[in-house]
Amino acid sequence: KRGVTGLDLAPAMVAQARAALDGFGDRACVVEGDSDRLPFHDESFDAAYCNDSFHHYPDPGKAAFEVWRVLRPGGLFVVGDCALPAPARAIMNATMRFSSEGDVRIYSRKEYERILGRWFSDVTWRRVEGTACVVEARK
């Protein structure tokens, strides 16, 4: 069976996404779940994409393992997230813990390579525009 499965922690976002996907039938679904306890069987997916949320994960290493667990051998994990130069990243990481945004940490290229490299091979990082990055990792 081919299709797209979305995941979100917030029930309101899941409901909104489900409403937007009405009409796609069983080709697309959204489930409520947590990044460090993915509600999927081992080796369930060919690819996983994390868009603008990796910096919110309280335990990015656990989230990376969970994605690795649910990917089939050879599966691809793509992360699209924010990226800042070292001085700006240090300021953001020091001040964001006082915001209402929750757990926020902007990761450097080396941090992504360390976090994802524990489980994945061929981890590549590239900057996109001025304040974003794309990280690809292969199981």
- What letter string, H or E per element, gives the SSE order? EHEEHEHHEE
**Mean model confidence by pLDDT:** 93
Low-confidence stretches: none
Question: Which class best fits the helix and strand makeup?
Answer: alpha/beta
Describe it.
The structure is a single chain. The chain is an alpha/beta fold and 139 residues long. It is 29% helix and 32% strand. The chain has helices spanning 11-20, 60-70, 86-95, 109-117; strands spanning 4-8, 28-32, 45-51, 71-82, 121-128, 132-138. It starts with a strand and ends with a strand.
Overview features:
single chain; 139 residues; alpha/beta; four-stranded mixed β-sheet; two-stranded parallel sheet; 32% strand
Write the layout of secondary structure elements.
Elements: E1 4-8, H1 11-20, E2 28-32, E3 45-51, H2 60-70, E4 71-82, H3 86-95, H4 109-117, E5 121-128, E6 132-138
Parallel strand pairs: 1-2, 3-4
Antiparallel strand pairs: 4-6, 5-6
Short summary of the structure?
The chain is an alpha/beta fold and 139 residues long.
